[in-house]
Amino acid sequence: MGYDPAVVFEEHLVNALVGLTTAVIGAFLYETTDGGFLFRKRFQSKEKALGIFLGSLVLMGILTPIADGLWTETVQSVSTTSIVGFTIIASMMMVNRSAGWNQTDDKSMTFYLIGSALILLPHL
After folding, report:
1. pTM over 0.85
2. Which of 99, 108, 109, 115 is the most exposed place for a label (fewest CB within 10 A)?
3. 8 Å CB contact between 73 and 67
């Protein structure tokens, strides 16, 4: 029994996209800083932070299979080039958000442009 490299790539791509999706959702649930744990832009006690974190784990456990199903369907119906373009844009946005960087600086805009070109021109 052999394996089909295209199928293996597709499965890994789905896993990567599910990871990106959970990272995006997680970034909006709470934030950690050197000084504490923020939820809804307010610092939380350790007890509340633990509850929020555990609740986030449960939520992500529920959402992960849903995201997996959606990405599996998407990967089968949308070109890989377009998906890579989307991934570049979403990843740049996440990097900027997590680091507190400007979303519209020249370097970010370059990546957004590249990602957009890959989405709009999937035959590249």
Report:
1. no
2. 99
3. no
Let me know: does 52 contact 6? Beta carbons within 8 Å.
no
Say how far apart CA 116 and CA 124 lie, in whole Å.
Answer: 12
Q: What is the tens place of the pLDDT at every residue in 66-113?
A: 999 999 999 889 988 898 899 999 999 989 988 889 999 999 999 999
Q: How far is CA 28 from CA 13, 25, 81, in A?
A: 23, 5, 27
Copy the structure tokens of residue 54.
């555990």
